[in-house]
Amino acid sequence: MPTTMSAVAVNMSATTYARRRAASSSRADVLRATPAMIGADASATMSKRRRRQSRAATLAVRAAASDEPSSKPKKSDEKYSNLTKMRSEAQAPFRTARMFVFGAFAANAALGLSIATLQAVTKALGAPSAPPLDQSLQNIGIDLGAALFFGYLYKKDAENREKQMARISREERLSALKCELSSGKVVSLFDLRGFSRVVIAAGDADYCNASIAAAEAVRDPLLERGVLVIPLALGDANESVNAPDDATDRRFRATPVYTDKWVAWIDEQKREAKVAAGKGVYVGLRMDGRVRSSGVG
């Protein structure tokens, strides 16, 4: 019996010792693993912080780049709008094809001219395999004449296209100008398309009053044709233009609004037509808003 009790006590002591050793070993493992875990967490935190900083730097660079003006011209910076170009193509539908053909023929003739010139030079230097000199000189004359001819045709078409697009652009700016009708409503000339044939009389007070008097003499035929007269007194003479007398006269006339824009358009038209600044001019529009006629007096 005492022997059995001793054995049990020994077993319990061994078990307790094993448990304590296991606990101690586990505690040591935890202590050893803790610095590694702390280091891993710190590394992950630093990595996230770096990614955030990189993302913020990228956004800052993009914002700075968007604030800088672009070197490429935008569509709004082009000389003529797409509507102007389309109207030009509609009014001269075969001009682009002609310019392509003339340009191709001129380039072909220029290439032939360079080849013929090279052959003539090599023959003059005594190359045995070069074509005869008189044949090369003849080819030079033909190619030179063709290059000049087709180049001239291309240049004329290009100049006509530029003039046409400039005229269309002026008509578009004119359509944006506003006037006040007899009802007090302010409309643009674009809104009057299809309803009125606008006639603008721009000059000093005497010129405007004389133009109105001349139109009054044939008021009824002009009203039947939907003519609307807009007198534009240039300079400081706005108060000197005769006011409309009756309701019929008011329907026959309109008053320009924002006259500085009207004056700027008239001055541009005068410079294009090489008219003196002090001359009175008139501009008549078609029903579709295109300029029908213009002149002095």
UniProtKB/TrEMBL annotation:
Q: Which Pfam families match?
A: DUF3493 (PF11998)
Listed Basic and acidic residues bias regions: 69-80
The record, for InterPro entries, names:
LPA1-like
Q: Where is this region: Disordered?
A: 61-83
Top-level taxon: Eukaryota
**Is Nucleotide-binding one of the keywords?**
no
Instruction: List residues traversing the bilayer.
Output: 96-116, 136-154
UniProt keyword terms in alphabetical order: Membrane, Transmembrane, Transmembrane helix
Record bears the keyword Lipid biosynthesis: no
Q: What is this protein's name?
A: Uncharacterized protein
> What species is given as this protein's source?
Micromonas pusilla
